[in-house]
Amino acid sequence: MNVRLEIAIAAARAGGDALRLRAADMGRIRTKSTAFDMVTEADIASGVAVVRSVAASIADARFVVEEPEVYSLAGVVRGELDDPEVWVIDPLDGTTSFIHGYPCYSVSVACLSYGQPVVGAVYNVPADEMTYASLGEGAFLNGRRLQCASTEEIRQSLIITGFPYDRTITLDKQLRVFGHLMREVHDIRRDGSSAIDCCHVAAGRADAFWEFGLMPWDLSAGVLILREVGAVITGLNGEEWTVDVSDVCAANPVLHTELLAAIQRGLRG
Questions:
Q1: Phi and psi of 199, rounded to 5°?
Q2: Domain shared by 160 and 192, yes or no
Q3: What is the domain count for the chain?
Q4: Which of 44, 113, 160, 198 sits most deeply, having the most CB atoms within 10 A of its CB?
């Protein structure tokens, strides 16, 4: 296991430990972009724990963190997504689930080089599952090597999605696609952590994933994990994923093509 991956795993676990400590008393809850986009003191505590863990091993590390308060609290340097090396952190992916005690939330840690992930770790805290990958070395779940499912027909597929905090145009698009796909696929699941969703596809627990309105910290670790098991993740027009792509579709190569076409049919209504 390479050093950067060991650092990512340790940092994700440090964030998970911080969340466990806050689960019974998560502190003040406030909203961000909308009334449905919430942040707790646990988000901040996890973020500080993650970046301090990385910085303890890499003194000059640069970061992109979902919660901006973390930079000053942890005394670390804000980076850019196209830096030669930057650590991209989601300290609590699934805040709504965490607030309600629903057992599906995660810590996501990725190291990017010029905008592409080279190391990623996603810690599913309630399940105590660590999924991780480094470029060219495969993806693993608690030490077990992963491979995505080989399902090729959309009607046989179990797919995962999430719903956006933007309850206007973005939600309207998602509901059109959801309604269309519900008539074509075997079934659909929604748990509330896109990072975990990517890991479920990588582990073969689900066949595909799509979602609108995601951010780089939501996806960076999951993208690498998916790629390392042979899955394809692109934008909804079929373009290669970059940090600028927020609407995504992921599956094995054959199913990806079929699912992408079905999503486009759903968008057209």
A1: -65, -35
A2: yes
A3: 2
A4: 198
Q: Is the dihedral of CA 197, 200, 206, 207 positive or negative?
A: positive
What mean pLDDT comes out for the span 18-23?
89
**Where is the domain boundary, 111, 145, 179?**
145
From 122, 145, 168, give the residue that closes a domain. Answer: 145
Is the pLDDT confidence value at 145 over 70? yes
- Is the separation of the CB atoms in 138 and 146 below 8 Å? yes
What DSSP character marks residue 238?
Answer: S
Is 32 exposed, middle or buried, given 0-12, 13-18 or 19+ CB atoms closer than 10 A?
middle
User: Torsion over CA of 208, 214, 220 and 224, rounded to 10 degrees?
Assistant: 10
Evaluate whether 99 touches 26 at the Cβ level (below 8 Å). Answer: yes
Q: What domain range includes position 170? A: 154-268
If asked whether residues 172 and 228 sit together in one domain, one would say: yes
171-223 pLDDT tens trace? 888 999 999 999 999 999 998 999 999 999 999 999 999 999 999 999 999 99
Structure-derived torsion over alpha carbons of residues 129, 99, 119, 221, reported in degrees to the nearest 10: 100
